[in-house]
Amino acid sequence: MRITVVGTGYVGLVVGACLAETGNDVHCADLDVAKIEGLKKNVLPIYEPGLDALVERNQSQGRLKFTIDVPAAIAGAEVVFIAVGTPPDEDGSADLRHVLAVAELVGKHMTREVVVVTKSTVPVGTADKVETAVAKHARLPFHLCSNPEFLKEGAAVDDFLKPDRVVLGVATDHARSVMAELYAPFVRTGKPIIFMDIPSAEMTKYAANAMLATRISFMNEVANLCERVGADVDMVRKGIGSDDRIGPSFLFPGPGYGGSCFPKDVKALLRTSEDRDAEMSVLRAVEEANDRQKHVLFAKLKKVMGDSIGGARIAVWGLAFKPQTDDMRESPALTLIDELLGAGATVVAHDPVAMHEAQRRLGDKVAYAATNYDALDGAAALVVVTDWNEYRHPDFSRIKSALSRPIVIDGRNLYDPNKMKNLGFTYRSIGRGDQS
Ligand SMILES: NC(=O)c1ccc[n+]([C@@H]2O[C@H](COP(=O)([O-])OP(=O)(O)OC[C@H]3O[C@@H](n4cnc5c(N)ncnc54)[C@H](O)[C@@H]3O)[C@@H](O)[C@H]2O)c1
Question: Which residue of 140, 191, 265, 401 is 20 to 30 Å from 225, comparing CA positions?
Fold first, then answer.
């Protein structure tokens, strides 16, 4: 099938590469000249496991093309995916400018009957706006589809190739049959394609992210209470996660959720609920709890170090908002670093893949270490923010001898509190043992 994907970011690039992998003729268009020039040479703008090989193979075999000429990419397409950003507007609502600009271009430049697929996360009711924007110039029939994306950064290629489910909001038989054919290779193991009306598909994405954010904030508050009552949140997590009604995923406490999706989507859903006069008090509390949680790492360090934080050098392991990605959008590491710098500390940071992104965001406000151990030299304390695998079994004697004070604040509960105590560390984690 002849496919166009507009927007070549975390989502669009994965969608384009995976659809090319199943034999489609895919044109990926983006306004970012540097990004497209890089992609033409197989230089990826993001770190995503497995994606580079997919791009290289499909580009060399001629099934995947990159261009900044959005109109030319739209001409000839049977399906156009809109995968541009929907950042939060000042009031928290999703900014639809990019989505609607692309929709207008589809109407202007389509040369055959086309299915217009909204992949970007957009509030309920956006399809009506997309329809109006396309219809403004369209001279041929077009069909709308809402196809929210559930991929996880860090596992995006796998998630797209082997989805738990595909959600498709459609209003016509044509859209239904074209999309069913397109997705058939990805659901051969029997995972469902769930067809529904368009507003329900738009809502499904927000409800999914709001539910996941709720689990995280809930467990973070349980962890904070565990610290006060002398309970161990890891035991509590196992105890409740083995209940089939609850399940074990997304129960890990930490320094608050980040990334491009949860914070933005929670805000946008709250905004929709206000506009429609439907109170979502639980979700409001989820957001407030997360805002508070992002300060816990600094608070724990401050409790241990007091005013000696000022002037101290602090090592930070992990900058990305989660492992296996270089995405630092809304990362708890940014909140921590701001607080450390505000308190007069100097920061030396390490991340296995997000260092270039950190340099772009933070410049020379922090120092960057080539390895996680290099970050410790001359540091008074270590704060672990991201649960990268390579931080899970470090050489503790090396950590202890490099730090001027043996303080470790572990935002991901990677280490055993008893072992850390026996090794002579002042060790604090989230919701376990003595945090006084
Ligand atoms: N990142 C995720 O994990 C994820 C998961 C599911 C859904 N989503 C949703 O998918 C959408 C895209 O997210 P992302 O993380 O890929 O964003 P991104 O910022 O990485 O990429 C968006 C791309 O769109 C391009 N763009 C913007 N306006 C354009 C225009 N008018 N014409 C052509 N290109 C344009 C930008 O240059 C950029 O390359 C958002 O709505 C997001 O909420 C993201």
Answer: 265
Long-range CB pairs of 35-38 (<8 Å, 24+ gap) are 35/8, 36/8, 36/66, 36/67, 36/68
Q: How far is the CA of 87 from the centre of ligand 1 (A)?
A: 9
**Cβ contacts of 235 within 8 Å, gap of 6 or more:** none
> Which of the residue ranges 89-93, 108-112, 202-206, 271-275 would you say has the lowest mean pLDDT?
89-93
For the chain, what is the largest distance between any 2 Cα atoms, rounded to a whole number of angstroms? 74
Contact 352, 359 (CB under 8 A): no
Show the ligand 1 pocket: residues with CB < 6 angstroms. Answer: 6-12, 29-32, 35, 70, 83-86, 98, 101-102, 120-121, 149, 151, 153, 260-261
To test the ligand 1 pocket, which listed residue (14, 27, 84) has its Cβ within 8 A of the most ligand atoms?
84
Angle 319-320-322 from CA coordinates, rounded to 5°: 125
CA 179 to chain centre: 25
Mean pLDDT of 264-279: 96
Burial of 419 (0-12, 13-18, 19+ CB in 10 A): exposed
Q: Domain 2-196: which CATH class?
A: alpha beta
Task: Supply the mean pLDDT for the chain.
Answer: 97
Q: Pick the atom of ligand 1 nearest to 10's CA.
A: 16
User: Under CATH, to which class is 294-428 assigned?
Assistant: alpha beta
3-state secondary structure of 257: coil
Atom of ligand 1 nearest to the CA of 264: 43
Nearest by Cα to 429 from 291, 296, 248: 296
Report yes or no on whether pTM surpasses 0.85.
yes
Same CATH fold assignment for domains 2-196 and 294-428: yes
Domain ranges of the chain: 2-196, 205-292, 294-428
What residues are paired with 4 via a beta bridge? 27, 80
Q: Is the pLDDT of residue 389 over 90?
A: yes
- Residue corresponding to tokens 């980040």: 258
DSSP state of 190: S
Does residue 261 have an active-site annotation?
Answer: yes
pLDDT of residue 435: 61
Question: Which atom of ligand 1 lies nearest, measured to the CA of 156?
Answer: 3
The closest of 66, 70, 133 to 97, measured between CA atoms, is: 133
Task: Determine the Cα–Cα distance for residues 411 and 430; give it in Å rounded to an integer.
Answer: 6
Q: Which one-letter DSSP state was computed for residue 191?
A: P
> 205-292, which class in CATH?
mainly alpha
